[in-house]
Specification:
With 270 residues, this protein is of the alpha/beta class. The protein folds into two domains: 158 residues, SPOUT methyltransferase, trefoil knot domain (Alpha/beta knot, 3-Layer(aba) Sandwich); 88 residues, Orthogonal Bundle (Trp Operon Repressor, Chain A), CATH 1.10.1270. It has nine helices and nine strands. The radius of gyration is 23 Å and the shape is elongated. The N and C termini lie far apart (47 Å). It binds S-adenosylmethionine (SAM). The site of S-adenosylmethionine has 20 residues, from strand 5. S-adenosylmethionine (SAM) binds next to strand 5.
């Protein structure tokens, strides 16, 4: 899979993508990431990429011509000349976009190419959005000074779902926000058989050695080797954490009768 990032700060990505899984994914030729300097598509002496907004008001706006030229250099024609079902998406990073989530990361991971346009200042001339972009994408309800951190988030969350990138493929399927439509693989006591199955809930808490730390003991249930009990405890912890931090996820998550009973208990202070 290939990511192209159009930015006025290509150097921003040098260290971000030079560590850990994303570095290994590139070294293993599973992912290509290219950051393109928008200023190299400006032709005046000052390599100007921004201008004042029509209609007045604060700040500057990224001009359309350098962005269009950058896209042309990447062989991206205007949207109307592309196959909408094709394997490329052009994404404008914007606080006004749909909010990025794990389901979108899963969809992106099926594509061959994602082109990410990073705005700066007050944003990008809207005609670039209209002419070239398949979608506007936000990484959350706050305003960044530029699209670069958002592009890094989208690349990171997507590339780790590409088959072969994670050492253990199951880690990508069974963590927080894991496949919401996953069947609950219930065994007789209604507890999912998977050790990690998140089924649209948040992940459960993790512990490792030492068993005692900072005056706190790791939960005994995790140390006793009874795997049915461990699965049941982990499911309860997932429900507990999701209820506390993201109750909205419970509306979509496939819950078993035992889950619902557990939630009832938790809601009643259990
Ligand atoms: N005037 C814009 C608004 O109020 O929506 C904010 C512009 S912001 C200062 C500059 C650039 O940062 C945007 O063009 C966009 O590329 C990026 N950006 C800011 N917040 C973002 C977010 N939550 N998600 C993705 N990109 C964001």
């Amino acid at each position: 899979m290939r990511f192209d990032i159009v930015t006025i700060f290509p150097g921003f990505f040098d260290s971000v993508f030079a560590q850990g899984i994303v570095r290994r994914a590139q070294a293993g030729n599973l992912v290509e990431i290219h950051a393109h300097d928008l200023r190299s598509f400006a032709h005046d002496r000052h390599r100007t990429v921004d201008d004042r907004p029509f209609g007045g008001g604060e700040g500057m706006v990224l001009k359309p011509e350098p962005l269009a030229e950058a896209l042309q250099s990447l062989a991206i024609p205007p949207r109307h000349h592309r196959d909408p079902g094709g394997a490329t998406r052009v994404v404008l990073l914007s606080a006004q976009g749909r909010v990025f989530n794990q389901a979108m990361a899963r969809q992106f991971a099926q594509l061959q190419r994602v082109v990410l346009l990073c705005g700066r200042y007050e944003g990008v001339d809207e005609r670039i959005n209209d002419l070239y972009c398949d979608m506007e994408l936000s990484i959350g309800d706050y305003v960044l000074s530029g699209g670069e951190p958002a592009a890094a988030v989208v690349v990171d969350a997507t590339m780790r779902l590409i088959p072969g990138v994670l050492g253990n493929q199951a880690s990508g399927e069974f963590e927080s926000f894991g496949v919401a439509d996953a069947e609950i693989d219930a065994d007789i006591d209604g507890v999912p058989r998977s050790q990690h199955g998140s089924g649209g809930l948040l992940d459960y808490p993790h512990y490792t050695r030492p068993a005692d730390f900072g005056g706190l003991h790791a939960p005994d249930v995790l140390l006793n080797g009874d795997h049915a009990q461990i699965r049941r405890w982990r499911r309860e912890q997932q429900l507990r954490k999701t209820l506390r931090n993201r109750p909205d996820l419970l509306e979509q998550a496939p819950l078993s009768a035992a889950d619902r009973q557990m939630l009832e208990t938790l809601r009643n202070g259990g």
